[in-house]
Amino acid sequence: MGASRVDMKVVLLGKEYGGKTSLVERYLHDRFAGDTPYQNVRNYNATIGAAFGAKKVDIGDKVLTLGVWDTAGSERYEAMSRIYYRGAKAAIVCYDLTDRTSFERARFWVNELMKNEEGCKIYLCGTKKDLVISDKRTREVDYHMTTDYAEEIHAEVHETSSKTGENIFELFTKIAKDFASNPENIKKERDKDKETLDLYEDNKKKFGCCG
Length: 211
Ligand SMILES: Nc1nc2c(ncn2[C@@H]2O[C@H](COP(=O)(O)OP(=O)(O)OP(=O)(O)O)[C@@H](O)[C@H]2O)c(=O)[nH]1
Hints:
By secondary structure, the protein is an alpha/beta fold.
């Protein structure tokens, strides 16, 4: 595997202020910007356009490189987010457990994906779990409602906290394992490797060298 190759594309979608960037930051860099004083409800760093990061995941018998696209939740960037989910093998559709309306937005993205991106596996992700554990009254999205919906759309539900790190590593590892266990993906990987090898052999024959 080439050093810079990404094995699978993962995209994050969901309402603004829903916790996508924090999830990615916790996963890629093990940090939480919400701890800094300038981060508050009125003045958080909203994503503009989209951001990209990559990380290697060891899933036991192999190591995969995940390319993670964090999209902007603002509806102003909706058209742009559509560009970013193209070709994604997994989508983490985020909703904020303390904001009922964010689940409506999650349903919107699920419909989009089901219509346009057949090969993309959907992971529903309820964010900010620490807030609903410390103060149960703040929960606005019922867990059983989300699992019923997930069953309907053949997705799964993960509830995470970027503040504490709960379930985040597990979520991305599950995504990588699901990808690797799908024979379709393995076949595509083999075809890709074969193409590279064929090109290498062709070049060797043509130029008598190996580039
Ligand atoms: N307590 C707590 N706060 C969180 C958590 N995740 C995110 N936040 C806070 O929620 C706010 C929004 O988080 P972001 O990660 O920027 O949300 P986003 O979905 O990327 O927002 P957009 O860029 O607008 O799409 C920030 O103030 C975060 O600090 C969490 O797990 N727990």
